[in-house]
């Protein structure tokens, strides 16, 4: 479905609203991605060139120990709150890192509850990155439920751009990417460089969903209740559906669309 190029609504005493804006254009005030210095980018590139191959199949503990020993700048651990494995590992191996949660405005209540529990359980600072527009403001500018008309634009404004701006204090980020999650992620490196020159470190790349579940049980971690109710991969509530047994764990994301990634990792 394409968003209407001319659409009016009546508010108040019947005054027509302005035409809906083009969702391909982010709202005025959207900040550019935070940039590193050329020297920082070069240092990161040298680390990737030197160590990426050696870390490709390393354990999560080895990868995070390497990061603690070799990365000079501050790192941030991105948490979707689908599980808290990264939070637990970072608390042990990257105690000086921050946590970051993309608070999109569309999360399940259970996801927000897990975020609150993470704040209570771990000493790391939890940064809540929020979009420039509230859900109501986005509806007014681009049409109600943009996620159903143009999910790529919705993800860009509510995930990709807030993350890029929030990365300013950090030289790199820790992700929860797993090669087993989908064919698109099958060759994900443990150590990479992102488009803005930051290190992108993925310590769980060799893990399966079963490995993740076992670690959660062994360490008595916070459990997102929806992962026990048919949701092995959890994003925003309107764009997350249950997954049948045996299906790709991410097949419930953006069901009905060809979209399989939010844009953070592509």
TrEMBL record:
State the similarity comment.
Answer: Belongs to the PAPS reductase family. CysH subfamily.
Subcellular localization, as worded in the UniProt entry: Cytoplasm
Q: Where is this region: Disordered?
A: 1-42
What positions constitute the catalytic site? Answer: 262
Pfam families listed in its UniProt record: PAPS_reduct
The note on the cofactor says:
Binds 1 [4Fe-4S] cluster per subunit.
Lineage here is: Bacteria, Bacillati, Actinomycetota, Actinomycetes, Micrococcales
Provide this UniProt record's keywords sorted from A to Z. Answer: Cytoplasm, Iron, Iron-sulfur, Metal-binding, Oxidoreductase
Its annotated function is as follows: Catalyzes the formation of sulfite from adenosine 5'-phosphosulfate (APS) using thioredoxin as an electron donor.
Cofactor annotation? [4Fe-4S] cluster
**Reaction catalysed by this chain?**
[thioredoxin]-disulfide + sulfite + AMP + 2 H(+) = adenosine 5'-phosphosulfate + [thioredoxin]-dithiol
Give all residue intervals belonging to the Phosphoadenosine phosphosulphate reductase domain: 76-241
Q: What is this protein called?
A: Adenosine 5'-phosphosulfate reductase
Give residues annotated as binding [4Fe-4S] cluster: 154-155, 236, 239
Major localisation: cytoplasm
**Superkingdom of this entry's organism?**
Bacteria
EC number(s) on file: 1.8.4.10
């Amino acid at each position: 479905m394409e968003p209407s190029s001319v659409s009016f609504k009546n508010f108040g005493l019947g005054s027509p609203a302005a035409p809906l804006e083009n969702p391909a254009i982010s709202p005025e005030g959207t900040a550019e991605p935070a940039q590193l210095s050329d020297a920082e980018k070069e240092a990161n590139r040298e680390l990737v060139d030197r160590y990426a191959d050696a870390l490709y199949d390393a354990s999560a503990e080895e990868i995070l120990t390497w990061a603690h020993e070799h990365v000079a700048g501050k790192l941030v651990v991105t948490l979707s709150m689908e599980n808290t494995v990264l939070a637990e590992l970072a608390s042990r191996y990257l105690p000086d890192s921050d946590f970051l949660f993309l608070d999109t405005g569309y999360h399940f209540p259970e996801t927000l509850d897990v975020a609150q529990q993470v704040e209570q359980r771990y000493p790391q600072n939890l940064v809540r990155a929020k979009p420039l527009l509230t859900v109501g403001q986005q509806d007014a500018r681009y049409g109600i439920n943009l996620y159903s008309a143009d999910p790529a634009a919705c993800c860009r404004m509510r995930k990709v751009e807030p993350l890029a701006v929030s990365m300013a204090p950090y030289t790199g980020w820790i992700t929860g990417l797993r090669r087993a999650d989908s064919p698109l992620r099958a060759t994900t490196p443990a150590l990479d460089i992102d488009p803005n020159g930051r290190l992108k470190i993925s310590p769980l790349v060799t893990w399966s969903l079963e490995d993740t579940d076992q670690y959660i049980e062994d360490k008595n971690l916070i459990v997102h209740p929806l992962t026990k109710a048919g949701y092995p991969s959890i994003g925003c509530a309107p764009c997350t559906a249950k997954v049948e047994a045996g299906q790709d764990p991410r097949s419930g994301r953006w069901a009905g669309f060809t979209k399989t990634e939010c844009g953070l990792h592509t």
